[in-house]
């Protein structure tokens, strides 16, 4: 089994556990998240790799950041995680690669994430995983357009955007090269 497939199985298992902990049927979760029952079922059984948008909706329902969800499928928390051991997750269809840089730990409020978007990639989230989430996006390479609510920000390498996320956001790689950034995420 490839590492990506293994991660999908772990994520699917964790999603099923969370739903069971809340005592929700697939139908109830579908109503709460706006995701179809069949899509939820396929994600829980790891028949498909969940997209960033799907995980974002589920994180919103469960009150977690994506990093928290991904850290919950990791082993016991450690203070140091080597570059080669950092959790990498991909949404191939969207052209998005996400690396959890911070050592996973569910009790911490802050975390670092590395994001990479292929040229032309366009990620739209209809809501934050946790309302009021504070994010600092530092663009390392490429060109990125970030929309927070109805305000559009165009970033060049070295630029840093601070945002408090309460509604829809969009991340678009607008240049001919990959956009690479560091995202500092702080729970409210």
Task: Give an overview of the whole structure.
The chain is of the alpha+beta class. The protein has five helices and ten strands; from the N terminus they run αααααββββββββββ. The strands form two sheets. A six-stranded antiparallel β-sheet has the order 1-2-3-10-5-8. The mean pLDDT is 90.
Q: Level of helix content? A: 25-40%
Beta content:
25-35%
Structural class, from helix and strand content? alpha+beta
Largest sheet: 6 strands, antiparallel
Spans of at least 5 consecutive residues whose pLDDT stays below 50 are none
Strand order of the largest sheet: 1-2-3-10-5-8
The protein's oligomeric status is: single chain
